[in-house]
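Kindly go through one protein, given below as sequence and tokens. The question is how this chain folds according to its tokens.

***
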Amino acid sequence: MIEVELKEAGKISRLTNKTFQFPKELGEGFYAANYFLKSNKIVKENAPGHIVTMQWFQRRDDSMLCGVDEAIAILHTYAIHPEELIIEALNDGDIIQNMEPVLKVTGKYENFGFLESVIDGVLARRTSVATNVREVLKVCGDTPVFSMADRQDDYHTQVGDGYATYVAGIKKVSTDAQGYWWGGKGMGTMPHALIQVCDGDVVKAARIYHKTFPNEKVTALIDYNNNVVRDSLILARALGHDLNGVRIDTSKSLIDHYFDDKDTSGFDPHGVCKELVFALREALDKEGFNYVKIIVSSSFGPEKIKLWNELKVPVDMYGVGTFFVNNMTCGFTGDLVMLDGKPQAKEGRANYPNNRLKNVPYPIY
């Protein structure tokens, strides 16, 4: 594995097939659309040797490209005679526009065509995640964000999604898998399950957490009893400066008990609402716990974060999951656009020029 660093322009250095780990079945066609496998066999047996150019693009403006290095690594690993291919590509982290080619491959169709749908999927998934992360980071100002996307999809997606998250600018992730391709490690706090094991006693859970990890200050989920302000104060009084922060993760179906005796007619009190955060900050500060951070999670995306920042809701960190990975916005298409040096494409498509594309040598390491 290679650890990479963000460049000043927001891009990362070109990764290689020494970085990415692929299942052997990928090269055996197990993940390829069957009609590509059939086409590959037909061309190989009946019309071999033609030199084609395939290009990939998507249809969304202001997207953050990701997955290109992975796609190149797939080509270098599984294409037949990859050294003969001419590969032109943009970089992971580039901002791309509607219909802009991000990758062009020129060579014999039978040597790489069977990889088309796999590359479509890689570019679509990684670019969508990176773009979603970028959308959040554009509106969160100086407030940090951590990715909780490990629990929002199949675990197989964590490594690639974590890489796309990193490309877009987030290094705080939940699992080691999310940091695997770039050298990061998962960060963790005290979950609901630990409080449950302690019979709902937040203080006991926090204390045994700190006993087990004495070099870490405690950040505790604080909505277990649905009484965020009360329990945060109890916890802060008990732990003092050993308490780093509290995370509110109240379900959208619940109203915190703080509002039991309060008029909520002027706002929606369900879930993690801004009124609850303001109340918690005021209560903590009133007792001298101004050092206790407030982290929020549950159904946060760019629209809500933008509004909260404009209203100066006192949040020290946002946890985002679903918006990052269950919101696929960038679908890619691979098209053949040149045949033996002449334009040849289906109606409505063409070999679109892009002077930003750079030649990728083989090998690249």
Remarks:
- The chain is about 30% helix and 15% strand.
